[in-house]
Design goal:
Layout: H1 2-27, E1 58-60, H2 70-74, E2 80-87, E3 92-101, H3 110-114, E4 120-122, E5 137-139, E6 145-146, H4 158-175
Antiparallel strand pairs: 1-4, 2-3, 3-5, 3-6
Amino acid sequence: MGAAASYFRHIKDAVVTIFDGMAVTASHFVRKPYTIQYPDRIPVRVQDTLPFRYRGILDVDMEICTGCLACDRACPINCIAISVEKIAATREIIISQFDIDMAKCMYCGLCSEVCPTGSIHHTTEFEGADYSLESLIRRFIAEPVVAYKAKKGPEPDAEVAQLLERGMKYVEEWAQPGSDKPAVAAPSKPGTIAAPPRPTLPPRPAPVTAPRPADGGGHDDGDKEG
């Protein structure tokens, strides 16, 4: 009797478990789906919802690049390769190579912080998947170009002025302190009491060495009396 009761109890538990699972599954037929059909069936592109300082794939506006090599020196993993040549006669800088290996980039943003014009900057683009590592090397120069030189007055070229305005906005955004920036210690205000100086210990006196006795005052044990 006990074995038969256990057998039918197991059948009952299996049926109840199946109905519990099917009830959860059936409830999703009447619920609003949570899955978003990316990227075709979304009202707004994900890239358009990201903040201005998002660290996406790097881009370079060669029209305002000064060829200062600051980004190349700031990169901790050497994923930026730049070749420049200074012309002494015209005082111009010719940039012949500007490559960024996105396969090595760790998106730290150090290159963007030191750029004086905001030429190199992170974008909101994050889809960098490709079929080979070589295709992830972004080459921004097809033929040598003259580096940008800042004007004393306003920029006459409207297109370059627009790029420069955007770049300077990017630089100012990076200069603003944020949650990912280390806090800068504020200077001490006048009237505050400074910490007392640490007392200095007096110098130790030099050790005194006792004078050694003269050699002529004693007798040699090895000498014999005549």
